[in-house]
UniProtKB/TrEMBL annotation:
InterPro entries: Homeodomain-like_sf, HTH-type_TetR-like_transc_reg, HTH_TetR, Tet_transcr_reg_TetR-rel_C_sf. Residues 8-68 form the HTH tetR-type domain. This is HTH-type transcriptional repressor AcnR. PROSITE patterns: HTH_TETR_2 (PS50977). GO terms for molecular function: DNA-binding transcription factor activity; transcription cis-regulatory region binding. One of its GO terms (biological process) is negative regulation of DNA-templated transcription. Transmembrane segments: none annotated. It comes from Microbacterium ginsengisoli. It comes from the Bacteria. Residues 31-50 bind DNA. Keywords: DNA-binding, Transcription, Transcription regulation.
Length: 205
């Protein structure tokens, strides 16, 4: 167990260092050496935990997206215990009221996508990660349908893909426009609500 815990701590410190270095110099400029120096580890420690810089950054991307989706899922669970207005816009505002700063994730995924278009191995890894994230969003949508008694015009997986694409577009625009985290959150919620209103067919039951 101590060895496992030590390995987890090493991975966590490398991911944290990667986040800091990436924020300063970007994906291409973030070398393995710079990440190791920031984390206080050798290259050997790096490669015993990650196959490549790309693997490390996908781990960072997974953690960023997992944290956000976990908070969204928690909000969905809370809907069963509180009185939430049943309009589509109110449901979206309630679910997305999680006050997160998405700029790091937006910058990270924008650079990973650009590199994935040039690198076949990175492209496969990106598509696998993207598919897993969309599947989690589809599960959240299914729970919202059950909790809010809504019917959709399209299957959950198609709705998930459309909602993810809309959120990503809004988040990228917010980052480029240098919007504050609060305003960026509002813009994303507004666009998601607009799309959701088109996807909702009628109350079920």
């Amino acid at each position: 167990m101590p060895t496992t815990r030590s390995r987890e701590n090493t991975r966590a410190r490398l991911v944290e260092a990667a986040s800091e270095v990436f924020a300063e110099v970007g994906f291409d400029g973030a070398s393995v050496e710079a990440i190791c120096e920031r984390a206080g580890f050798t290259r050997g420690a790096f490669y015993s935990n990650f196959e490549s810089k790309e693997d490390l950054f996908f781990e960072l991307a997974r953690q960023v997206s997992d944290t956000k989706l976990a908070r969204v899922a928690d909000r969905v669970s809370e809907m069963a215990a509180v009185e939430v207005p049943r309009s589509t816009a109110e449901i979206v505002r309630f679910v997305l009221d999680i006050a997160t700063d998405d700029r790091l994730g937006v910058l990270l995924m924008s650079e990973i996508r650009t590199n994935a278009m040039r690198d076949e191995r990175l492209a496969r890894a990106y598509l696998a990660w993207d598919g897993a994230m969309a599947a989690r969003v589809a599960q959240i949508i299914a729970e919202i349908r059950r909790t809010s008694r809504l019917a959709l015009r399209v299957p959950d997986d198609e709705a998930a893909r459309m909602l993810v694409n809309t959120w990503e577009d809004a988040a990228v625009h917010a980052a480029i426009a240098r919007l504050s985290p609060k305003r960026a959150e509002q813009q994303c919620a507004e666009r998601i609500a607009a799309l959701a209103s088109l996807l909702v067919e009628s109350p079920a039951g």
